[in-house]
Amino acid sequence: MKSFITSSLAAAALYTSAVADPIQNCPNGNSGVCFQVAVPESAASAGTGNLYFQISAPDSYAWIGLGTGTRMSNSNMFLMYQDGSGNVTISPRRASGQVMPQVTTNGAQLELLAGSGVSNGVMTANVRCSNCASGSSTPGWQITAFMLMWAGFGLGVVYGNDHGYLFKQTHTILGTVVCVLLVVQPFLGLVHHMHYKKHQMRGAVSHSHIWFGRIVLLLGIIDGGLGMQLASSSTTWIVAYSVVASITTVLYVLAIWLKSRRTGGRRKDDLSLGGSPVRESHEMK
Fold it and tell me: What is the residue range of the signal peptide feature (predicted)?
């Protein structure tokens, strides 16, 4: 019996323009092992949604594995093996190093689709994963920033109250408005997420969430400048803040533009692998 495992860099984040035309890779042309990955354009642009992949290999293999990342450590892996009744099983695993990956109960949400099974000496698993296109650590940073914002707000309230200009200056008023508006943003994000899971596409609430955040971000930058003015900061510090704020704004706008260009390119080009390297290893039993 033989085992085979391959890992493709960020395999769960590969961008394709249509599920019907996936990216295919056969790491060893003579092994008969092939993998295909496809992400709907809507999921690629939103960063969440269904991801589809296929694993196929001769039934002489004991199991076949597809993993994300360039190494075993902390990799999400998907193992396919026969169940003894002419069908296949797909098992989500989490690897911690060069050891057998452990089964995860709260990891990837997988569903075997039609066409999966063992036929003519070939094992095939057609899989839909409803949460493989996400998994970023961004929410953790957002929560941390959100908590730090409220800590800063609390310090500002105490300082402003002690010096007698709390809610009497534009900076304190606008700062309070920004903090209150940011409370709304997570709820808009939740509604967007629910809408996307149901319709697999962005809606009005999605664009509201995006533009609401951009407007609040701009107000926050303006309020930072007002705060420096209120503190009677030196011209040097005001100029430095203005330069940093301007550069940050330009980079943000540039990132949005580049993302829209990539999205447009995916509509014109059927596939874009992005030069992702593939790592493979073999184990013989």
Answer: 1-20
